[in-house]
Give the backbone structure.
Amino acid sequence: MDQVILEARALAYRYPGAVAAVVSGVDLALGSGQLLALVGPNGSGKTTLLRLLVGALPPQQGQARLLGRPVLSVERRERARTVAVVAQREEPAFPLRVREAVMLGRYPYLGPWGAPRRSDREAVERALERTDTLHLASRWVATLSGGEWQRVRLARALAQEPRALVLDEPSANLDVAHEMALFELVAELARTQDLAALVVTHHVNLAARFADQVVVLARGNVVASGPPSAVITPDVLEPVFGWPVEVISWRGVPQCIPLKRSEVTS
């Protein structure tokens, strides 16, 4: 790991009225050039942890840090130049064409009434090309499929030219080809552009194939953290997901196979 971009130090958060904390004492570090996958069952606190890390929620205990500084002390525009977020769900707020939607990623670099410059337009074109959405540039966002809209949102994040990219279930609504293309793109950006990438995914096997580090979260706690070979194991996954699994090695990469009940008893 090179420079640490995002860091959690004993982070904890409990929603008002909740009995237990949804995030409890989490430590995590995301460095440049690294792809970190955060996996866990529904309700394990993954999305809340992301919101704490990027400053969308104030922690009740512990601290989230951006480039060594408390994230909430970093001015919002500077935060947006450093970290780009693709949230789990988002509906278009008003009518836009795709190129205009991606141009919104340049807002941290523009004044309130500033017109896009050549560098802004070039950043948008690069982002459209990288996400295979250039052919959609003139389409109205409202006409896109769920998968097309997901890729446009990723293009908007890349147009920010951030130091860190944070994606919450980015492959939702994507077919196999675009799902694989997305993970390959994010892994390539981390490797070649020195980008820090944090991906929340329910695809354990994709996490194992592409991530440098995997963090398993359950009931708000980090259950395991490390390279895929150390984390993607039955001892870790079965109690977390509450289901029997077998883990095999495919070209040296661990792959998880959920078992049928009949296969367990036999």
